[in-house]
Amino acid sequence: MGMLQDGRWTNETPVAPTDDKGRFQRADSGFRDRLSADGSSRYAAEADRYHLYVSLACPWAHRTLVVRALKGLEELLPVTVVGPIMGECGWSFAERFGGSGDPVEGVEHLHQLYAIADSGMTGKVTVPVLWDKRERRIVNNESAEIIRMLNTAFDDLGAKPGDYYPPELRDEIDPMNDRVYHSVNNGVYRAGFAQSQEAYDEAVHGLFDSLDWLETRLTGDWLVGGRLTEADIRLFTTLVRFDPVYHGHFKCNIRRLVDYPRLRALTERIAALPGVAATIDLDQIKQHYYRSHPGINPSGIVPAGPAVPF
After folding, report:
1. pLDDT per residue as tens digits for the range 109-150
2. Which domains, ranges and CATH numbers included, belong to the chain?
3. What pLDDT does residue 308 have?
4. Which residues are catalytic?
5. What is the percent of the chain where pLDDT is above 70?
6. How far apart are CA 185 and CA 71, in angstroms?
7. What is the Cα 2 distance to its own chain's centre?
């Protein structure tokens, strides 16, 4: 996977760092500034100032694309896509690696963008990235925070109506997000990258305990308050990838998404919302996971199935 060390790219780091018990450890995001609608932060929402860098394979980046589509921000917030394969230089914009090219800074690799923002940076190079074209800086690279910015920051500039983090539901959304993040969103990675039987067992059973709980809890169309919220969106991007990738590649194989009729219906319901289907690229998803993790899949063979209705 590699990282930046004092502003220089190095591959002398493990793909998935673990603790002394073999548990996968996810690094914190390094850029945490805020985009504001009212100019109360350094970064005021404006048309044609910001750019979103994503991977179509990454579930964290996928969240931002879903909210961008639901809010109709295609014109206000253009997107650049990295290719699906994470090679020796990490995420790449190069078309030969499946990327879309970078029309903003003209760089070939995402780590070069990070180095422009912070020439002495030490840390992981991840997607999504919310980029300020004027100051040539990264505003934020934490998906959970970016989706909340996109939820409201552009409302006075022509965004579609819709509040996916309504104040009256936050006391329910926050604990839901917390459980889903630790046991499901990150739980599949903790199972897939586990380096001991103990770490894998802990992660995989926690994952399916939460999926069972979610299936039982989902008695209506949505997880919280009878309406679509960010809690549904954050779960959705993991569920889309579950049967094609996590079930086999990450050994999350106690049950499949198709064995959870309510969760499957939730996934199909969100995928059918205007603009959301266009954010799902199962080919890039499978190419990324099966070809970027040689320690898990040394042959690099990408499976043909399963057929899923997204």
Report:
1. 999 999 999 999 999 999 999 999 999 999 999 999 999 999
2. 3-157 (3.40.30.10), 167-273 (1.20.1050.10)
3. 86
4. 58, 189
5. 96
6. 23
7. 18
Q: Could you report the per-residue pLDDT of 157-207, keeping only the tens digit for each?
A: 999 999 999 999 999 999 999 999 999 999 999 999 999 999 999 999 999
Say what the pTM is: 0.94
Question: How far is CA 50 from each of CA 133, 146, 165, 266, rounded to the nearest angstrom?
Answer: 6, 12, 22, 32
Task: Determine the Cα–Cα distance for residues 119 and 191; give it in Å rounded to an integer.
Answer: 35
Tokens of 281: 């690229």
DSSP β-ladder status, 79-82 and 3-5: unpaired
How far from the centroid of its chain's Cα atoms is residue 92's Cα?
A: 17
Give the up-direction half-sphere exposure of residue 153: CA atoms within 13 A in the CB hemisphere: 25
> Distance between CA atoms of 138 and 130, rounded to whole angstroms?
6
User: Distance between CA atoms of 42 and 175, rounded to whole angstroms?
Assistant: 30
Q: Tell me the DSSP string of 156-173.
A: GGTPPS--SS-GGGHHHH
DSSP 192-260: HT--SHHHHHHHHHHHHHHHHHHHHH--SSSSBTTB--HHHHHHHHHHHHIIIIITTTT---SS-GGG-
Distance CA 81, CA 191 (A): 27
Angle, helices 197-217/261-271, rounded to nearest 10 degrees = 80
